[in-house]
Amino acid sequence: MRVPLSWLREFVDVPADASPEDVLAALVSVGFEEEDVHRFDLTGPIVVGEVLEFVEEPQSNGKTIRWCQVRVAPGDEVAADGGPAVHGVVCGAGNFFAGDKVVVTLPGAVLPGPFPIAARKTYGHVSDGMIASARELGLGDEHSGILRLVELGLDAPVGTDAIALLGLDDVAVDINVTPDRGYALSIRGVAREYSHSTGAEFRDPGAKVWGEVNLHDESAFAVTVDDQAPLRGRVGASEFVARIVRDVDPTKPTPAWMIARLTLAGIRSLGILIDITNYVMIELGQPIHGYDLDKLTGGITVRRATAGEKLETLDGKVRDLSAEDLLITDESGPIGLAGVMGGGTTEMTDATRNVLIEAATFDTVSIARTARRHKLPSEASRRFERGVDPAIPFIAAARVAELMVTYAGGTDTRAGGALMNAFSTAGIELPRAFVPALIGVAYTDAEIVAALEMIGCEVSENPRGWIAIPPTWRPDLTDKWTLAEEVARIEGYDRIPSVLPTPPSGRGLTLAQQGRRRVANALAAAGFVETPSFGFTTEDQNDLHGSPSGERLPSIKLANPLDGQSPFLRRSLVPGLLQVAHRNLSRGLTDLSLFESGSVFLPEPGVQYGTSFVPPLAVRPDAATLAQLDASIPPQHRHVAILVTGNVVAKQPGQQPVAADLADALDAVRVIASAAGVAIDVAQAERAALHPGRTGVLSVGGTEVGYVGEVLPAVAEASDLPGRVLVAELDLDLILSLAGEKVVAASLSTFPAATQDVSLVLDAAIPAAAVRAALVEGSGALLESARLVDDYRGQGLPEGSKSLTFALRFRAGDRTLTAAEATEAKLAGVEVASRSFGATLRE
């Protein structure tokens, strides 16, 4: 919410010397968040000038410029920039006349941009300044001609400071208003809060006595609410005030001070009639809509949409309406989305002569859902969905009528229509000791009552404490807890002591969370950088990386994706790592070790996921509905994936660079296994996106848990990744479940180990992992470890054979092994390998 300080001072006494930072500090102390300070980004000298004469000078480029003589100081006095009283200025606009008073930016001035003004030679003249348009001054988008003071209804002596005259010396503070404090989306609400903070006198613009609409006038306007499908048991409109102003002149200029305030508040000037409705909305917090009365057919009915109805809104779009949409209609049909945006058929234009003013109170949920359904947020819906003061519509409509009479030349007929439901705010019981016990501050009874009365509550005593009736502009005050928060806010958050809470016993991370954190910490300690990415990708990437052979498996497509190029939920983490690697390589980072831990979405074949059923948002879904929604979500598995490319050892004196290869990816897999508390086996395999000779399947106890390998050069090139790219991806949830609840450390034996090597000759196509498994199986319980140390292929071996050498370590837990016992165990393992694969001992 942007709050111009000149506007704020109308309703609360802000010291003249208070800086924007002082005002922000006061508002922060009562619970708002400081956002920014907004100013008109210009400096003088910028003065009122009078066009004495000009000469039309056609140019060779087809443009006609005017060489103007402009008086910028009275008589023969010196101008504000120290120059002569009359300046020669080149101007390309043609919408002014001799004798017009205009805004002249003299040399030394700076306009928004920044755009410094200096004397410069152009079109054969030295232009000693510039005649400014509204856009050049930051007052709007109008740039077809220069700003004439007569069009703003202004007159001032030549040489007058135009910055002050146009309100360009004003400044606005910007605060963040939380959803529960919609009353602060108005100057009225912010002024009240500034008063709470500083004790300054507050003058409520909503307390002014206005004449009500004359419903007995012959021209009374019919207003009906026909809501046959209320949400949460509440009708869509509880108050509706219509007021008629006749004989307006929509071509009259919006006052400069009003344009300046609206601009600082973030609202564009759109003409006097619309500017007035926006001005009152910002001032009082009550959204206003104006209709061209002569375009209405019959009275107004507020109702829900029916099937098939459409409405063209003010933004020119034709919208298909839902049965939940609340509409403003006349006899011709829908003329507006209630509380969101008006319709194009009844909008106010330069031809409008008679205006119907609408000020209403609409149901918060209904407006919020309509705005989101049509993706049509507006300043009006922003306020209605947070709650608008139900006591303000009459006052707001009368304020609009007053301004239209004053600045648009209209006549307030005080005729119209009104529908007002009786509203009352229920009292809230506040026990005497509740606030001190909840907040932890020993507030006195007088402090509690004073704080509640300050925010507008009516407070009365009862035997247990007080009954507080919240004001109409605070729909967020619903129970004793919200009242306690208000006491703490008004009395100051600095009074609340800082106490470190004692955590309850038996809580903390789950076993799965602990395991995931161990894996992430271990990879980070090993030099990998975590790079989380979005969980969206393309169907082709899902097929390439999310299935072993690249076949098309089911993928979930989002109905409303963030990126239309990537509308599918990912089946693999690798595409995201490839994108991250490409982004880093494009910025000069060539040596990368990356990892990500996140969810992948693996729908089961033949199961239909997703649902077109949307439960009502106004009530909590029941258990059956929640179960139906849960069933529409595909299984989500948490995976961990790594990517290595470039050098793992950088070039340095005495050290040549070492490029990453498959061994580095396997090392990362072993880091993951160690942190998870499992032993991972690797066996050769094939995968669609990976090199066929450098790909391995990973398993734990015979259960496949992932893969590791080198990305195919063509796939790496498609991601603009030069050189080798190594990846691995594992199902982290599955690994942690296989590890069990506890990771048990192996016991250390006090007896020495017996080590022996064994070399086996066998067919070259047999995987080494399978041979190792056979040795382990046959060697029995005495075998402590078996490690492949050599793979020889060449001279001395039969064609198509290889020699695998394993280092075996044997140990007994209760004695020192003899060499004979170790040899016997080794030969038992060789026997199993021989039976299984035809392996023979190499001589």
List its salient traits.
843 residues; alpha+beta; Phenylalanyl-tRNA Synthetase, Chain B, domain 1; OB fold (Dihydrolipoamide Acetyltransferase, E2P); Phenylalanyl-tRNA Synthetase, Chain B, domain 3; 6 domains; 7-stranded mixed sheet; 5-stranded antiparallel sheet; 22 helices
Strand content: 25-35%
Reading off the top of the CATH hierarchy, the class of the largest domain is best stated as Alpha Beta
The name of the CATH topology of the largest domain is: BirA Bifunctional Protein, domain 2
Q: Give average pLDDT, whole number.
A: 88
Radius of gyration: 39 Å
**Backbone shape:** elongated
Helix content: 25-40%
Question: Helix segment count?
Answer: 22
Please give the largest β-sheet: 7 strands, mixed
Uncertain stretches of 5 or more adjacent residues: none
Q: What would you say the CATH architecture of the largest domain is?
A: 2-Layer Sandwich
Strand order of the largest sheet: 27-30-31-37-36-35-34
Structural class estimated from helices and strands: alpha+beta
Q: Tell me the domain tally.
A: 6
The CATH homologous superfamily of the largest domain is named Bira Bifunctional Protein, Domain 2
Strands, total number: 41
Spatial separation of the terminal alpha carbons? 87 Å
Question: Care to describe what's here?
Answer:
With 843 residues, the chain is an alpha+beta fold. It has six domains: 2-28 and 176-203, Phenylalanyl-tRNA Synthetase, Chain B, domain 1; 46-165, Nucleic acid-binding proteins (OB fold (Dihydrolipoamide Acetyltransferase, E2P)); 223-420, 3-Layer(bba) Sandwich (Phenylalanyl-tRNA Synthetase, Chain B, domain 3), CATH 3.50.40; 428-495, Phenylalanyl-tRNA Synthetase, Chain B, domain 1 (2-Layer Sandwich), CATH 3.30.56.10; 512-739, BirA Bifunctional Protein, domain 2 (2-Layer Sandwich), CATH 3.30.930.10; 754-841, Alpha-Beta Plaits (2-Layer Sandwich), CATH 3.30.70. The protein contains 22 helices and 41 strands. The strands form twelve sheets. The chain has a seven-stranded mixed sheet, with helices on both faces. A five-stranded antiparallel sheet has the order 5-4-3-6-11, with no helix packed on it. It has a five-stranded mixed sheet with strand order 13-16-19-20-21. Helix 6 (256-264) crosses helix 7. The chain is elongated. The mean pLDDT is 88.
